[in-house]
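DUF4314 domain-containing protein (Micromonospora andamanensis), 380 aa
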Amino acid sequence: MTSPTSNNHPESRPAGDDYRRGDRVALQHTNDPHTRLRPGDEGTVRGYDPDQRILDVAWDSGSRLSMILDAGDRVRPLPNLAWQRVLTALREAGVAAGRDAAQWWAQDTIGGRAHGDVARTARDVLTGIEAADGRDIDGLPFADRDDAAGRARYAEHAPTDAPAYPDLTSRQADQARQAWCDGFDQAVEVEAARQCRMVLHPDGDDRDLCHVYPDAVRVGGPGVFAGDWAATPEPAGQTRIPVAFAGTLINWWNGWAVFRCTRRVAEAIVADQQTHRDQLRRHLRDGGTTDSDADRQIDETLGRMWFDGDVIVVDDSRVQHDPEAIDRISPDADGHYVVMGWNWTWQVVHPYDCDRIAGIIPDPTPTASGTSLPGGSTNA
């Protein structure tokens, strides 16, 4: 055993001298010149005298050398696997409780029992959670950190072989309370965000779509696209887009997006163009325009589009007053289309501004700097 000196190393012990029988420790330093112990050797605490600050350790090597912490001996605590299992059980209980609380919250706020513009509420809540300040959102459930609540949760959820709550050190009590609360709060944010995404997504999907938010879309990556003509204003300054199209951004043209898409999405674009022509026809007829005049005005305003086998034919001859203004858009080797890229004013839009999204939003696709991308552009 080493002789006491005036040296003190508070960093060598847990806060508050919370050494307990059964704790695992590793040697950092000892002043005993005769011991065969070396830094990193591990042992189990047999007892601790907080007044003398003497730590009795049964070392795995067989040594029974005690540590006099005020004499310069230093150890570091090792994870207590039994205690870690207790904390894991408490955290998992907090997660389950947080998920349930968020589901009840959703019913009253953005679900079946909610009133008003639930989409706007969901958008505001999701924005707050994504800004990492979910616990500041008014009405979002949060954990009760009161000691009495922590004591009750420990009694209910700690494993049967866990130490009794009155036998815990102050540090263990704090850890137990924090484990449940952290699980609860994190689960609330995860589940609330999922519920908001389902409300906002046109198909009720709960996938996280932050990688296709407009400020996240990069050349070579996925996005949601619509013409600048598609947005319709809504109250409170919001816009709604009846239909948008999933694809991959391949370039920018005068500030407008150029993207490639699947055959299914290309068919939706062609169908949407026809929808706009039909809407214009109804508007003209309601205004008393004859069928022949309506046909002429429609062709001069909106081009005709159709599929000829695998090729999209775009007839803008009357729009541009040029008989040769007829384009044929063929698929690439992968069967994808660039529909009116470098011609129409496409823009990247927020997926939650859309009533419907044609196609499946792909997962993020990382690209190496300088590699070639579909459509002949580069990510340089």
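The first helix runs from residue 81 to 109. The mean pLDDT is 88. ok done for today
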